Batch of 2 targets.
Target 1
Amino acid sequence: MSLRSPLGKVRGLGSAKNGTHHWWMQKVTAVALIPLTIWFVSSVVQMTQASYEVVINWMTSPIVTVLMTLFVATGIYHLKLGLQVVIEDYIHSESAKVVLQMTVSFCCIITATAAIFSILKIAL
Amino acid sequence: MSDIKRPTSPHLQVYSWSLEMALSILHRATGVALGGGVLLMTWWIISTATGPDAYDQFRMFMSGIIGKTILFGFTFSLMLHLCNGIRHLFWDMGKGFELEDTHRSSKMVLFSSILLTILCWVIGYGLI
C-alpha cells in the first residue's frame, strides 16, 4: 500500500496535453450548429408531406448535399462530446465507463458514416 | 479519487427548484434525447437513399401517433437545446451572469423554445 496521496502520485508528471481541447471543440461545433440547425429545420418543416421525388430532388442539389453532410458530421461530433461528459459524470465504475465510452464512439462513427454515405449516394 | 469516507456537504436536495436549475438539467436531458433525434434523422436519410418503398415505410411511421409524438419531442428538444446553447455561449464570453440577467434569459429561453416549436408545427403540419 502506498502512503502517497493521489495528487502526490501525479505531481511532476506533466499535463495530459489536451487541457481545453474537448471544451473548445464543443464550443466550435456549437457555433457551427446554430446556422446549420436553423437551415435544416426551416428546410424540413416544408417537407413534412413531401413525396419521395421531392425529397430526392432536394437532396440532389449540391448545396443541400454539402450542408447536410456538414450538419450530420458536426451534429454527431457535438453529440459524441456531450455524451462523453454525461458518462464521465454519472458512471463511476471504471470498466462500465470504458465500455460505454467505446460504445458511444462506435455508434456515433457508424451513424455518421451511414448517414453521410446515404447523402452522397443520393447526390452522386 | 481517495477512498476515505469524508462527510459530504448538502447537495441538490436542500435547494428549492428554480427555472435555472430546471433548464440546466433539461439542457443535458434534451442533449441526450437529441441522440435519438439523430438516429431518427439518419433513418430518414438512409430510407431516402434506399428507395421509394423504404421512404414510404418511414413516412408511414412518422405520420402515426407514435411518430408524431417522437417528432414533437425532437422538435422541442432541438429548440430548447439551441436556445439554451446560445445562452451558454454568452456565458462563455462572460456575459449575463448577473442574477436578474439570468432570470430574464431563463424566461427568454423557455418562451422562445416553446414559440419556435409551435412555429415549426404550424408551418410543418398547419396545426399543432
Target 2
Amino acid sequence: MLPNTSWLKDLAISETGLIFDPSTGSIFTANTTGVQILMAMKEGKDAAQIKASLVEEFEVDANKAEIDIQDFLNQLTTSCPEKK
Amino acid sequence: MPNVAVTGLNAVDTPAPGVPVVRCLKESQEFKGNIVGLAYDALEPGILDNNLLHSAYLLPYPSVGPQSLLERIRFVHEREHLDVIIPTLDAELQNFIQIQKQLLLLDIHLTLPIEESLLRRAKVNLPKFAEEFGFKTPKTTLVTDPNWLGLTEKDLPVFVKGIFYEAYLAYSMEDVYRYVHKIGAKWGYPVLLQEYVEGEEFNATTVGHDGNALGIVCMKKLVLTDKGKGWACVTIKNDNLIDLTQKVVASLKWHGPIEVEVILSKKDHQFYIIELNPRFPAWIYLAKAAGINLPLLSLQLATGDEWCNTMDYQTGVVFSNCTTNLITDLTRIQTLFTTGEIHYT
C-alpha cells in the first residue's frame, strides 16, 4: 500500500539521488533504487508496477523487492511526518 | 533616476540588511540613481566600500530622537538631493515614522507602516496580536525586574530576548539570570522570556502595500550561527507560510517591508510566529536572486512608479554568507570620524 503521494509531484530529484522538497526545504539523498521508487511513485505507478520494475531492473525476487519498497516508504514517512 | 539613502550597513558576523538592499538596487537594470549610505558608526564596513556607495553620512543614534535625525537628513538632502530613504534597522523606524511628513515636504519618500502597525507587531505585543488574530506564537513573558523572572525549572529551556536585538537560549536558571542582566544592561527592559519551540526555522519576506502582501519569498534556514542566526538558507514555496504571511500583512494593515520569522513545531507541525521584523531581512539578496527584487519594489512604491506584483520565483536557490576582507585607507575612517561624511564619486 503506497502512502499519499500527491506531494511527490513537486519534488526535485536529481540523477545523482539528491532530492529537494520545495515546500519544506528538506533535502534527502537516495540510492539508485530509492530514486527509481520515487520516480515511479511520482509518475503515479501503483505498488505492483513499482515492484515489477524493481524485479526487472535489479534482478531480485519479488519478496525482496517488496521488503525493500516497504523499508524505503517507512524511511520516507519517518523523514517527512507532516506528509503522512 | 531616484537617489536613494539606505541605512544598516554594518556587515559584520550578524549582518544588517543595508548592504544586501544596496546590492539588490545596484544590480537592477531599472535603477540608475545614486545610493547614499547612512550609518551610525564610522567603522560600519558597508560605508567603507567605494564600489557600493556614491557617498556616506553618519547619523545621530536613534536614542537622540527624531528631531536630530530630521536635521541630519536635511543636511544630507541639501548635498545629495535624496528621493527615497530605505531604513533597515528596527531601532530607527519609530524616528523615521515620526519625521515622515516633514520628509515628504522635502520630496523624500519612504515606504513605512503607520506607528500603530509598527507597535502592534513589536516583540512585547506579539502574543496579544497573535491571540487577537488567531496566530500561534510561543508563550512569552516580560521581565521588568531582573529579580523576578516568573519562571521555574520546568519552563526551561527558554529564549531570553532583547526588545530590539539579541537572543540567547538558556538551559538553566543561572543562564536565564545571566542573559536577562546582560540584555537588560545593553538594550533596557523589558527583557522577553520566550518558550522554546522545537522545530525547523523558516522565514518569509514581503513588501506590504496598505495591507496587501506583494511578492512573498519564503526560505528555510540550512545553517545557523552560534547566535542562532541564519548563515545559509534555501528558497522554498510553502503554501501555509505564504498564507500566514498574507494574513499577517492584512491583519497589521502593513505598509512597507516585513520579515515573518516562524518555527515549524516538531510536535504539532504548526507554524509558530517567533518575530515579525519591520524591515527587510539580511537575506533579502536571496529573494532578488530567486526572482523577486523586493527592495526595488519598495522603491517603486515609494516613488509612485509602476510596480509589478509577482509571486513567481525559483525554489532551491541557496544563499550562504561568505566573509571576505575589505582593504581601505585609514584616511576614509579619519574623514568619517572628523567630518561625518565621505564621497566616493
